[in-house]
Amino acid sequence: MEQPSARKTTFAPPTELLIGKTLKIFKRYVDDVFAIVENGKVIELLNHLNESFPNKIAFTVEEGIDGQLPFLDVLVASSSIFSLTIP
Questions:
Q1: How far apart are CA 87 and CA 75, in angstroms?
Q2: Where are the beta strands (DSSP E) in the chain?
Q3: Full-prediction pTM beyond 0.90?
Q4: How far apart are the C-alpha atoms of 42 and 39, rounded to whole Å?
Q5: Where is pLDDT greater, at 19 or 50?
Q6: In what helix (H) or strand (E) does residue 42 lie, and over which residues does it extend?
Q7: Residue 71 in 3-state DSSP?
Q8: Residue 71 near residue 28 (C-beta atoms within 8 A)
Q9: Burial of 45: CB neighbours in 10 Å, binned 0-12, 13-18, 19+
Q10: Superkingdom, according to UniProt (predicted)?
Q11: How high is the pLDDT of residue 82?
């Protein structure tokens, strides 16, 4: 019998959101997802993901403040040039 920790759940963003160019970036690391989503489409994506895995996974949203968002051990900043800060 397979151990619960060995089970994998894979998911991809919904095709209709990709086709519509809603998702600019969708990256997953273990149990964290980093996504850049078109304005006004965040709740649509959040609802889709939560409906896809009822009672198994609960997705939440964190929005950046002043163009910055901490993700894992990195501070992601929005700017015209690439910038990466590790606190």
A1: 7
A2: 23-29, 32-37, 68-71, 74-77, 84-85
A3: no
A4: 7
A5: 50
A6: helix 42-52
A7: strand
A8: no
A9: buried
A10: Eukaryota
A11: 59
Q: Which long-range contacts (CB under 8 A, 24 or more apart) does 22-27 make?
A: none
Chain-centroid distance of CA 66 in Å reads: 19
Q: How far apart are CA 18 and CA 11, in angstroms?
A: 14
Which of helix, strand or coil describes residue 29?
A: strand
The Cα 18–Cα 63 span in angstroms is 20
Q: What is the distance between the alpha carbons of residues 81 and 87, in angstroms, rounded to a whole number? A: 19
State the Cα–Cα distance between residues 11 and 80, nearest whole angstrom.
31
State phi, psi for 10 to the nearest 5 degrees.
-110, 145
CA geometry: angle 4, 50, 30, nearest 5 deg: 45
